[in-house]
Design brief:
With 240 residues, the protein is an all-alpha fold. The chain has ten helices and no strands.
Length: 240
């Protein structure tokens, strides 16, 4: 599907903004489609069993008094502690030796999967389930509601970018990746996904830069490593 040139410009701008970022600040699930497409972030195991209104005009269902209250929004102190935890985990993730990076990756994905709202987690799970069923239209509907209600939840934008990509809408997919990287510049899954889309569009130079930026954050991604080798070979001698 042809993509307007301004979408390539958006991708290039994202990469320029991240070029001086380095490995101090960046995602992942089984490949959903065309390799080397990264996985989506899994939701928390404890999925809330509640109904989120499909239409904003519909009244929210009443919660019986016997049910526990939904978790409150994270406090500023909790968010600060989470950010400090992420800083330590990313330092561990970037270690070139050892195997502790795999544990750090798992912990990062778990932190990223927490929206702080049971209702938002439910919307995320519905979108993810629709994607698993191959229903990208329904997935985009759920995930659009999620990004509308929780615009600071990077995982929602990331999963919707996956849905747009699988639906063949590369422009919206790139735009959503821009939101992910604005919220979390260390989102290595978004950077790898951006590289995959740009390579598929034939923008090899920007694709290579996206993969390199992703590897600065998470150097153990085999797909990104393979992509860098492939694109470096392809572009060898073209700068002459």
């Amino acid at each position: 599907m042809p993509v307007p040139l301004f979408h390539h410009a958006v991708a290039a701008a994202l990469l320029l903004g991240l070029a001086g970022f380095g490995s101090g600040q960046a995602g992942q699930a089984a490949p959903l489609a065309k390799a080397p497409f990264p996985q989506a972030i899994p939701v928390q195991d404890e999925a809330p069993q509640e109904n989120f209104p499909e239409n904003e005009d519909d009244p929210a269902p009443e919660t019986p008094l016997s049910e526990p209250a939904a978790p409150s929004e994270p406090t500023a102190e909790a968010r600060l502690r989470e950010r400090e935890d992420l800083d330590l985990l990313f330092a561990e993730l970037a270690e070139p030796e050892g195997e502790t990076w795999a544990r750090a990756e798992t912990d990062i994905l778990r932190i990223w999967s927490r929206s702080g709202s049971a209702a938002m987690d439910l919307l995320y799970k519905r979108g993810e389930a629709a994607l698993d069923a191959g229903d990208t239209v329904t997935a985009i509907g759920h995930l659009t509601a999620l990004t509308d209600h929780a615009p600071d939840f990077a995982a929602g934008w990331y999963l919707r970018s996956v849905a747009f990509y699988l639906d063949g809408d590369f422009g919206p997919a790139i735009a959503d990746l821009g939101e992910v990287l604005r919220l979390e510049p260390r989102h290595f899954g978004a950077l790898t996904q951006l590289g995959s889309i740009l390579e598929e569009l034939g923008d090899d130079r920007n694709a290579l830069e996206a993969f390199r930026q992703s590897l600065k954050v998470h150097p153990h991604q085999q797909d990104a490593q393979d992509a860098v080798r492939r694109l470096e070979q392809k572009l060898q001698g073209t700068d002459a």
